[in-house]
Write a structure and sequence with these properties.
Layout: E1 6-12, H1 19-27, E2 35-40, H2 47-54, E3 61-65, H3 72-82, E4 87-90, E5 96-97, H4 101-111, E6 117-125, E7 131-135, E8 145-147, H5 149-156, E9 168-171, H6 172-177, H7 189-201, E10 203-214, H8 220-225, H9 228-244, H10 254-272, H11 281-288, H12 291-302, H13 306-321, H14 326-338
Helix pairs in contact: 5-7, 9-10, 10-11, 10-13, 11-12, 12-13
Length: 342
């Protein structure tokens, strides 16, 4: 087989202050990218001059300056269209990669030519530098493993969201065959595409943290979650797409499970990251679709002292909505606790 060629698509909008961190991480890759498309989405800060300085260290980087702001999804779509690599990494100007990500992911994809993507674990970091979590919430495997479409469907019945884009390398061909970056799906576009490709072609999971997600409350996923009406609209569009593709590749049982899990994910953010630290019981109940009983439970839980109230609300939502396998969540937590720190 010919050697793999990797394109990094790096959208940027007014992240001139953060670009050096992302570009330094790309420059430190043990296996460098063959092409870097830095697409500036009509920034009004010094992003373009910062990127120009970094071209000396990253000669494979091409800077594409858009004259009109198109948004991150449209920018990713353009990058995917212009990429020349058979493999693609969809980056973010405010996140960073670990040095071994590309080397491990490319080796895994070359070892498993049927897989449409390789993905690893991600560390979540708050704006103040605090590490507050790891994703995925459930580890598909403790060892590097290829999940064929049948195994991916079985995993989907118990878990979800095992692909986090900051630590994923994709095959460009299958992405385009599946429709690529669909702008109608907004913040859900990459996660839905990851599910679809996993169910069509399989994926490789790489244990270990290979990406760092600097969670930005103003970012696309968090800002979308803060707007329940927009979120519910996107979930409805995504569910309609899934229902239109039952059997090729989605299982018939998946649409309501998808909706329930995504409603839970946003409700969890509304509880834990509410503006001003004050979750709104009515908004949470509307997001979950739990009706009057949900509203009563949220009001009762959130009358408790802050930390205890959030814990009670999350406990209620988890037990009622059953987003994922509780035994697998516990096993992942124990497995991660046993790991050497670092």
């Amino acid at each position: 087989m010919p050697a793999s060629r990797l394109t990094v698509v790096l959208p940027n909008y007014n992240h001139g202050r953060l670009l050096p961190r992302a570009l330094a991480a790309l420059a430190a890759q043990e296996r460098p990218a063959d092409e870097i498309l830095l697409i500036d989405d009509a920034s009004t800060d010094d992003s373009l001059s910062v990127a120009a300085v970094w071209q000396a260290r990253l000669p494979q980087m091409r800077i594409i300056a858009q004259s009109l702001n198109a948004g991150v999804v449209a920018t990713l779509r353009r990058g995917l269209a212009e990429a020349t690599g058979d493999l693609v990494y969809l980056g973010a100007a405010d996140d960073e990669t670990r040095p071994e990500l590309f080397a491990r992911a490319i080796a895994a994809l070359e070892a498993h030519p049927r897989a449409a993507l390789a993905t690893a674990e991600v560390r979540l970091v708050a704006p103040d530098g605090r590490i507050f979590g790891l994703r995925p919430a459930i580890l598909p495997s403790q060892e590097e493993a290829y999940f064929d479409p049948t195994a991916a469907a079985d995993l989907l019945s118990r878990a979800d969201h095992w692909v986090v884009t900051v630590a994923a390398v994709w095959r460009r061909g299958p992405m385009l065959e599946a429709g690529g970056i669909d702008p109608e799906l907004g913040a859900l576009v990459d996660s839905l595409l990851a599910r679809e490709l996993s169910l069509r072609h399989g994926f490789v999971f790489l244990p270990g943290v290979l990406g760092i997600w600097h969670v930005n409350p103003a970012g696309v996923s968090r800002s979308t979650a803060a707007d329940p009406r927009t979120t519910l609209d996107l979930v409805a569009k995504a569910r309609a797409r899934i229902e239109a593709r039952i059997g090729a590749p989605y299982p018939a049982w998946y649409p309501p499970v998808f909706e329930r899990r995504n409603r839970f994910a946003v409700a969890r953010l509304l509880v834990t990251e509410a503006p001003g630290g004050r979750p709104d019981p009515a908004v949470i109940a509307a997001m979950t679709g739990g009706g009057a009983l949900e509203l009563m439970a949220m009001r009762a839980a959130l009358r408790l002292p802050a930390a205890l109230g959030r814990l009670a609300a999350l406990g209620w939502l988890t037990m009622r909505m059953r987003p994922m396998s509780l035994p697998l969540l516990i096993r992942t937590w124990l497995d991660r606790r046993r790991r050497p720190r670092g």
